[in-house]
Fold this sequence. Notes:
- The protein is an all-alpha fold.
- It is 81% helix and 0% strand.
- The chain is built from 6 helices and no strands.
- The protein has helices at residues 2-42, 49-70, 79-83, 86-118, 130-134, 136-162.
- Helix 1 packs antiparallel against helix 6.
Amino acid sequence: xxxxxxxxxxxDLLDKICxxxxxxxxxxxVLTTSLQIICRVFxxxxxxxxxxxxxxxxxxxxxxxxxxxxxGGHISVTFAQEKLPQKLQKGxxxxxxxxxxxLFAIAVxxxxxxxxxxxTQLSAALRIPMSLMYMAIPLxxxxxxxHAFNAIIQxxxxxxxxxx
Length: 164
């Protein structure tokens, strides 16, 4: 029980941190794009703004996917699952989280491989290592993997609490 609570607290904390980072990244995208429009109309276009916006979008996508997964907000088809008896519904939920977890684990593994392979390349305008951009894949999928693991544990904790 103590381990389950600890994992749940880590998952919740990570979700809160990711939510704050996500809001900051979205604000950064809005500010950068607005600055680009102002500079393009009244001055000279900024050479780096589109690249910053693109990379913030990539990072916010992977971080945001973790936040949405934590809250169960991804699109899902629950029609068949709702037709199952209550006990089988829990099993179906566990199976879905296991399959998602497997996908996330594969994405983390190949994300690190890709990050390592392309990491020496520099971005065109900002000249920053592309490994920082590709790091969004294993980091975002790693967060979702933790949330999937936590979701499975919470299903078992709720079953224990209900005396099933």
